[in-house]
Specification:
heterodimer; A: alpha+beta; Ubiquitin-like (UB roll); 2 domains; five-stranded mixed β-sheet; elongated; B: alpha/beta; Flavocytochrome C3, Chain A, domain 1; five-stranded parallel β-sheet; five-stranded antiparallel β-sheet; 16 helices; 21 strands; globular; binds flavin-adenine dinucleotide; binds iron/sulfur cluster; binds FE2/S2 (inorganic) cluster
Amino acid sequence: MKIQIKVWRQSNAKSEGKFSTYPLDGVSEDMSFFEMLDSLNDNLVMGGKDPIAFDHDCREGICGTCGIFINGRAHGPIRGVTTCQLHMRSFQNGETIVVEPWRAKAFPIIRDLIVDRQSFDRVMESGGYISINAGNAQDANVIPIAKENSDLAMDAAACIGCGACAATCKNSSAMLFVSAKVSQFALLPQGQPERSNRVKNMVDQMDEEGFGNCTNTGACEVECPKEISLVNIARMNREFLKASIM
Amino acid sequence: MFPDSKIPSGPLAEKWTKHQFDLKLVNPSNRRKYDIIVVGTGLGGAAAAASFAEMGYNVKAFSFHESPRRAHSIAAQGGINAAKNYPNDGDSVFRLFYDTIKGGDYRSREANVYRLAEVSNAIIDQCVAQGIPFAREYGGLLDNRSFGGAQVSRTFYARGQTGQQLLLGAYSSLVRQMHKGKVQFFPRHEMLEPVLIDGEAKGIITRNLVTGEISSHSANAVVLATGGYGNVFFLSTNAMASNGTAAWRAYKKGAYFANPSFTQIHPTCIPVASEHQSKLTLMSESLRNDGRVWVPKKVGDDRHPNDIPEDDRDYYLERLYPSFGNLVPRDVASRRAKEMCDEGRGVGPTKLAVYLDFEDAINRMGKDQVTAKYGNLFDMYQQITGEDPYKVPMRIYPAVHYTMGGIWVDYNLMTTVPGLYVLGEANFSDHGANRLGASALMQGLADGYFVIPYTIGDYLSKKLGEEVSTDHDAFKEATSNVNERLNKLISINGNRTVDRIHKELGLIMWDHVGMARDKGGLETAIEKIPTLREEFWSNVKISGKLDELNPELEKAGRLADFLELGELMARDGLNREESCGGHFRTEYQTEDNEALRDDENFTYVAAWEHKGDTSSPELHKEELEFENVELTTRSYK
Ligand SMILES: Cc1cc2nc3c(=O)[nH]c(=O)nc-3n(C[C@H](O)[C@H](O)[C@H](O)COP(=O)(O)OP(=O)(O)OC[C@H]3O[C@@H](n4cnc5c(N)ncnc54)[C@H](O)[C@@H]3O)c2cc1C
Ligand code: SF4
Ligand code: FES
């Protein structure tokens, strides 16, 4: 395959960015999207140019490190997968592929396709945990947990923290991400004691980070590589309401 | 004399309890007077950093990742072992200990492994309390499955995402302490040197990967939990950024490196598809619970797998090992797969693959059950290969996966450098010559939650009132070494990219220090690696600058260390004239092609000491003593 990559180049947080276009020949269908970028970067370095910086690590869809807009869609054209799981067989010979970083106020660009997602960590710090010190726990089987709830908690816990939801949302809302954590703990007995503080603190921190409001467009759910459900947002809204009345 | 491994005396089952009592303590009100540096926030590091902070110590935690929610640990799929015996199938602390010692082919310490088994249950309790949604039965209690090398079901799991859930659990404990101000976290900071003052570890030098800034950090003790070095092979199942730099830098400052050649090759990975391949993807070993491994009986049978009748298939693991069948340990399964391919019975376009077939499982359990158990793995396979494993058997081949070798530590997890501790995959401690499935997560969390929090106090208690400052000359010297090296790297401006040289190193390692080794091959590696190292230092091409985010520079620094570590691995493999676990020397095998150990001469840990860049490393032997298990030939027949 022969393709062209039109990609956002920006040397650091302060500089202006712009698109540059690079042709690439000899792309095979079995290559992953990132192997294609590796090969483009190899050309760039050999030609004395700066390679395109992008975040990635596991290349298996689990670490949540990768994440770029490809042809205007977070994580590219296929539903339920991360950028690193895309293969070139999903693209056409001769195509110009447009590649951009996440765009959201709370995710400032660091370089090229790499953004700073520490805002997510700060939201987690504000309440995304159960307060238990190592050594305090009772036997794991003391509290039976209904399989349905445990499974629902696992569905929510599958979030990889990639940020596609907030990057996709026209309001840059992080509701899907935050609600996934709130839901996981709200569904489990271990999460009950801190239930109302958790949701209040996490929502406050989310607002403070500059994430926008949710207007129920549902775009996040469509682009989420782990198919985290909007039901979680509804659950978080209920949790929040309950916590506010209390 | 070999440094003291500090193994407590007394009966096996009482050692840890006795040792905990004998260790000196730091009293709670004094703990806030101590700073501890933790490098790495994967399972081992995050658990340790959170636990230290919970106890009252001040923690500075570093990771080259952007967040402690990211680390290689997150990719672990299959599960974590514990001796709970919930399924009532005869498990016990002793059995988990025994299986791990045997699985490691009797090349690990009895006392360490017993302690690991002993604390395994507390890990599961801790994780459940953190809200980790482990798989459950309909009655609401925890579910278990079995893994290779064991005849009981003792593996706890969270779908195919156990590592993710455990790491997010440790991360949640860590962010809680960050919120309280007890842990200061430094994201995108790579440690490039440990700093020693009067021979003891008192700090580190880091590079801020965003700005390129080099900075010094001091503490009363330094803990490394920086993961394994499987990426020395270029292609492995490890995350792209996993590397050996922290361990290697510690080695060069005096920490011994133990059993560097002990590498685990995992039997069930997706085969290499093209020369552009950047990494290999593991298909969890749990698949071997229900999948059946086979190759065609005839050499050169090119029929579609679904057209090959039962009679023409060789379910070779079931044939060779009737009692363990498809669940033999990893080293055995990998080597046998290689043998089948060497015989010409490999399958798929490259002939470097065997089948893992789910047809019987689908018929027996129904497709829905199979989906419930393995759905995400099947999806992943299809995504990568474009083939549907519900209809066509998966193709799998062994790939580098885990390094049992690592920095030598004593029973307290301290290295030969006082004040320097190593946890998790980065140390050598518990898995001998082969690690059993689902026990790396167990070890990382055991080290972090339940071992180091106790043992570090013994050292710190002697340092009450110690002031460490980055003004000390040792920090200046280390900083200038780091700068000099970085400047040298960036100014080479040669003709080959980092990846190209890394791929070449990977091939040397795979061909000569891989699944089957022999004297000639290991010697070839020892000859070729230094030549490639010279090529690197004179001809590597790194674009960009020092004072900016520069991934090529990061990769180059890591490769420079791999180019030294690879040679030590080959030396270690050459020294060990026996086969054990993942270390298979073709000269030493039984008539049935099983590993032939030499207990008389090699029942030791090979710990290598750095002697300067121009001399050979010195070998020290820690003799292993077995008082509670009998050394037998591992048999999985
Ligand atoms: C695909 C896959 C599946 C697996 N499945 C299982 C399984 O089912 N069960 C099981 O028990 N085990 C499994 N393992 C093994 C297990 O996941 C790892 O051995 C374990 O997670 C390692 O944890 P760790 O904390 O030691 O290191 P890591 O998770 O590798 O963490 C290393 C940390 O150190 C940091 N770091 C490293 N070097 C530096 C430096 N120089 N400066 C700053 N920071 C640094 C990194 O940023 C990271 O935070 C699997 C491994 C793989 C590859
Ligand atoms: S909710 Fe989905 S899109 Fe958002 S961070 Fe989590 S995994 Fe990514
Ligand atoms: S690189 Fe880990 S999810 Fe894509």
